[in-house]
Each structure stands twice: as C-alpha cells, then as structure tokens.
UniProtKB/TrEMBL annotation:
Pfam families: Cupredoxin_1, Cytochrom_C, nos_propeller. Coiled coil: none annotated. The keyword Heme applies. It comes from Wolinella succinogenes (strain ATCC 29543 / DSM 1740 / CCUG 13145 / JCM 31913 / LMG 7466 / NCTC 11488 / FDC 602W) (Vibrio succinogenes). Its main location: periplasm. This is NOSZ PROTEIN. SUPFAM superfamilies: Cupredoxins, Cytochrome c, Nitrous oxide reductase, N-terminal domain. The lineage of its organism: Bacteria, Pseudomonadati, Campylobacterota, Epsilonproteobacteria, Campylobacterales. Residues 373-464 form the Cytochrome c domain. Keywords: Copper, Heme, Iron, Metal-binding, Periplasm. CDD domains: N2OR_C (cd04223). InterPro entries: CcO_II-like_C, Cupredoxin, Cyt_c-like_dom, Cyt_c-like_dom_sf, EfeO_Cupredoxin, N2O_reductase_N, N2OR_C, Nos_propeller. The gene is NOSZ.
Length: 470
C-alpha cells in the first residue's frame, strides 16, 4: 500500500519501489510484473535511491531509504525526532537492512548517489579565484600587497588570511562610509578554510584555500568592531582577528592613553617616560640602520626607491619639532605632557620605518642579480602558495629563514623538492623533527605541481646569490 517512488537496479528490468503505508521497499521485475522481495523500513518511507539508480547505468549493490518517521529507533531526545536514512544491501537474493543514520533536519526529500571515483574536484582554488566566475578575482591580494584605499566615502580594504592572522589588523573608517573587504585565503593546504565576520554588521564569508571574496556594508554605527575568523583553523585561531574603528568625523575623541596617564602616580609616570624613550631609541636605531643601507647603496639612482625614501624622510623630518616639545615639557616637570609628545614621536618613527623598510626591500631587488624567468615564476609560486605566511626571507619568523636552505642538506635540491612535494615524508627526519618542535608547526602540503617546485628552487638559488641584500 502507498507506492510512492522508484529507483533501478543494475540488472535489467529490476526496480525498487517505496511503500509509504506499508513502510517497505519492494523489489520487483517490471518487465515480467513479478514481486521478488520486500524489506521493512522504519518508518513511512518516501523517497529512495539505489547507487546511481536514477542514471542510465545503475550500479546496484545498495539502496537508501529516506524514512519520514523514526519512532523507537534512537534514544529519545524530545518531541522533535530525527529523520532516519537506512542503508540496505541489495547485492544478494534477499534485501538486508544494514545501517541506520539519524538526520537532524526536516523531511528528507530525495537524494542522488554518485560513484566516488567520478568525483574529481579541485582540492584548492588557484590563488585569487573568484568562485562566482571561476576566474582570477580582480582584487586578488598576495602577502605584502595588503592595503587600504579611500575614494570619497568609499573604503576598500585589500586583505589576506593565513593561519593565524588577518592582515591588515586595524582599519579606520568614517561613519557612513561604504566599506568593502576583499580577502584572499593564502593557504595552499587543502581544507584550511577561513571564515570572516564583522561583529555587529551582519556580514560573513567563507574563504576556502586560494579563494578571494568581497563583503560590502555601510559603516552606519560608530564604535570598535572586531573582525575575526569563524572557522577553527589552528591552535592560534582565537588570535586571528582585527579591529574596525568607525569614527564620526564630526566628533573629537579623547585619547585613551592620555586618560590612562592622568591616573598614574609620579613614579609610574617617570617609569612610563623611560619606557617610551627606550622604545623610541630602539625604533630610531632600526631607522638609522635602514638609512645607512640606503645611502651606502646609492638609493637616489633608483626613482621608485628615491620616492619612497623622500616619503620616509618627510615623516622623519616632523620628529624634531615634536621631540623639542617633549623635551621642553620634561624640563618643566610636565612628565605627562612629555610622554604624550614622545608617543607622537613614536608614531612618526613607525611611519618612517614602515616606508623605509619598503624602500630597502625595493632597493635590494634593484641591486640583486636579475631574476631568470624560472626564478620569477618561482617567486610567484612562492607568494601564491602562501609560503611567506611562515617564511620571511632574511629572518626567522613563524618558520625558518629560507636563505641558505639549499646548503643545509646533502643532495639539497632533491631534498627540498621531495619535502615540498610531500612534507609528511620528512616529518621523522631528525632535522625536520627539530624544526617542528622549535616552531610548533608542521610544514603543510601546499599541493605544488612539479614545475612550480622546480621554479621555487630556482627562486631559492636567486635568494642565496643575493643573501647579503636581504
């Protein structure tokens, strides 16, 4: 009673029909009008499927019953019972129920099975893919290209995601601005999806490895709004966040640091003053080392580098006047005021250092031996592969410095090739075990193809040739 739906067997003429009232699947020969078998299901089956049973070439072997009721099949959890999917072996002369699967959803309304060997998906997107078009997204952003661009009341943020960091971490906009975040997931390890949400603004995106997404909203409420990864991606997942500052351009905001200083004792203020002086001295030392490098290498011969240096020097040139005010305040005994001026000095220094380091990196590339085409492709693969999420050329970061990596191993090029191709194959080697223990990270499989790996090795050779510049 109650025949509803049909699915087919690999054997010609054999069909399976769901019986809603009888709570059964019946197997019968529709060419000879003969019932062959019945099996009880639990309960009130609607749709059903056999393996590829709705195609021109059914596979047989198993059938799936999509039952609407599951009375007494599972532990009671309340008035709302789960639906029940039941797997039935149809490979023998008699059908046999072999598995129950509770489904916590609404009425199960049809399924289609497909053989697993027919699934050939990409495990990651090509870097910067727009999943809506399948082509490269116009706003693809690689590491080092992160930026914020403003045009009128439109603000566009070009950012990156990689375990466990969202870059940029701080974005300031005006109330009423139209804000667009373009985000590229730099991961090349499969299944390392990141999410992105902005608290209070009802925006969310799923960003699979290699994908670039865009989220747009109007910043119509002032305040500080965290944005963060919503997909548990690593042990440091909770640190993967940043802050959107929405300010009303018509208001003047009090400095939190200034309010904090007002509550300090004389001794605490003196300690804070010494601390900020030391910080500024350390920052200035970095600036001076960069300046020496730039001057020694005749930066003025390179227009792009010269422009950056002029920008940096413009910021640095503002320090003298502010520093004089800081010193004058301190001489008068106004330690609070001196600290606030020193904070301003530090702001100019940070801007100087940021632009100066970019100038240094650009000059280093100008001075380095020209890249061969393979090395250029290797650098592109290195960046698109998200390698610089852990490796920073010239210094230790979340992973070891890759300068000199081709001299650390016997038959180094083959070793590096094999490691990039299949990192897990090296996990038990003493050297790699030491690196894993030190950095508390394992090199993931970035699914590079053989040519990309060969090109990366050429890029590493270029780095070693120019090691003194980085």
């Amino acid at each position: 009673m109650g025949p509803l739906h049909h699915t087919y067997d690999a054997q010609d003429g054999i069909i399976y029909t769901s019986l809603y009232v009888d709570s059964q699947i019946v197997k019968w020969d529709y060419k000879n009008l003969k019932v062959l078998d019945r099996v009880n299901v639990h309960y009130n089956i609607g749709h059903l499927d056999s393996m590829e049973g709705k195609s021109a070439k059914p596979k047989g072997k198993y059938a799936l019953a999509l039952d609407k009721l599951s009375i007494d099949r599972f532990n009671p959890v309340g008035p709302l019972h789960p639906q029940n999917h039941q797997l039935i072996d149809i490979g023998g002369p008699k059908m046999e129920l072999i598995y129950d699967l509770p489904i916590p959803l609404g009425e199960p309304h049809d399924v289609i099975s497909i053989a697993a060997d027919k699934l050939k998906p990409q495990v990651t997107y090509p870097m910067g893919t727009n999943s809506r078009t399948g082509k490269q997204h116009e706003a693809m952003t690689l590491a080092g290209q992160e930026r914020v661009e403003r045009k009128g009341n439109e603000v566009k943020i070009y950012g990156t995601l990689i375990r466990s960091h969202i870059n940029p971490e701080h974005v300031t906009v005006n109330k009423g601005d139209k804000v667009t975040f373009y985000l590229t997931n730099l991961e090349r390890a499969q299944d390392e999806t990141h999410g992105f949400a902005v608290s209070g603004y009802n925006v969310h995106a799923s960003v699979e490895p290699g994908k670039t997404v865009a989220v747009t909203f109007t910043a119509d409420e002032e305040g500080v709004f965290p944005y963060y990864c919503t997909e548990f991606c690593s042990a440091l997942h909770l640190e993967m966040m940043g802050y959107l500052y929405v300010k009303d351009p018509k208001k003047k905001y009090e400095s939190v640091k200034e309010l904090k200083l007002q509550k300090m004792s004389k001794e605490q203020l003196e300690s804070e003053y010494k601390k900020v002086i030391a910080t500024n001295k350390a920052t200035d030392d970095v600036i001076q080392s960069v300046v020496k490098f730039l001057k020694d290498k005749n930066y003025a011969k390179y227009p792009k580098v010269k422009s950056l240096v002029e920008d940096a020097l413009d910021q640095y040139g503002k320090i003298g006047e502010v520093k004089a005010k800081a010193d004058e305040s301190y001489k008068k005994g106004d330690v609070n005021g001196a600290i606030l001026w020193e904070y301003q000095v530090w702001q100019y220094m940070v801007k100087t250092a940021d632009v100066g380091l970019r100038a240094k990196n650009n000059l280093a590339k100008e001075l380095a031996t020209p890249m061969k085409p393979a090395a250029q492709k290797g650098e592109e693969a290195y960046l698109k592969g998200g390698c610089n999420g852990c490796h920073v050329i010239g210094q230790v970061s979340s992973g070891p410095d890759l300068t000199g990596v081709l001299s650390r191993h016997e038959n180094a090029e083959k070793w590096v090739f094999d490691f990039i191709k299949n990192p897990a194959s090296k996990y038990e080697e003493d050297y790699v075990k030491t690196m894993i223990n030190y950095f508390n990270l394992r090199m993931p499989n970035q699914h590079m193809n053989d040519q990309e790996i060969k090109d990366i090795i050429e890029y590493l050779k270029w780095i070693d040739e120019n090691a003194g510049l980085f």
